[in-house]
Amino acid sequence: MSERDRLRARLDSGLSALGLVFEVAVVDRLLEYVTLLSRWNATYNLTAVRDPGEMVTRHLLDSLAIVPHVRGATLADLGSGAGLPGIPLAIVAPERAVTVVDSNGKKTRFLREAARSLKLENVRVLESRVEAVPGTFDCITARAFATLADMLTWGGHLLAADGTWLAMKGKVDPEELAGIPAAFEVRTIHALQVPGLDAERHLVELRRRTAAAG
User: Fold this and answer.
1) Is it the case that residue 31 has pLDDT exceeding 50?
2) 209 FRET partner, CA 20 to 30 A, in 37, 105, 143, 166?
3) Which pairing describes strands 97-102 and 74-78: parallel, antiparallel, or unpaired?
């Protein structure tokens, strides 16, 4: 079995376990993203994960596990790093406008190359601090790049009035939940099962607190 076939088998198995079905062209593009990330990672050290097979599990499947909870026409992925979860989410939903944000020039260069080589016309790359990002978004994703309090303090202005904030976490710390700004509230916490990943994963879903909610 070739390396490409091995990666496809792992991805196909994981997608099946997640209950996700995508066209062959979408799966091909997800694998192309892993290939590109692996190639760039050898020089630019974008992720601590070195093995492409582990990238499928720890990056692709981890990102795609939140697909059922993503909603809206616009999405911003804050602290995107190597594009996680923003690039996989953009690949599987080309109708959604995705903005990937990172302040690291090395990482945004990779993100621009990923968008160009994978022909992701729905992706916009911003090299920016979160505080300086303009506009608002229906959905915001953030993959454990800061505490919930810091995420919302820096980027809370980016969430549309009826938008959804999806914070990807390992274990959920009650003290961290208690520290979120008063303008926001936890809607629900989803326990995620990432195929092949023997670690706790949770998705904290937040929204703006409405006047009726106090």
Assistant:
1) yes
2) 143
3) parallel
Distance, in Å, from the CA atom of 214 to the CA atom of 196, rounded to the nearest integer, reads 41
Ligand-binding site membership of 7 (annotated): no
| Cα–Cα distance, 149 to 132 (Å, whole number) | 17
Alpha helices in the chain (DSSP H): 3-18, 24-44, 52-55, 62-64, 86-92, 105-117, 148-155, 174-178
Q: Is 143 annotated as a binding residue?
A: yes
Please, what CATH class does the domain formed by 3-213 belong to?
alpha beta
Q: How far apart are CA 85 and CA 66, in angstroms?
A: 9
Using DSSP, state whether 50 is helix, strand or coil: coil
Enumerate the domain spans of the chain: 3-213
pLDDT band at 212 (very low <50, low <70, confident <90, very high): low
Question: 41-53 pLDDT, tens per residue?
Answer: 988 888 999 999 9
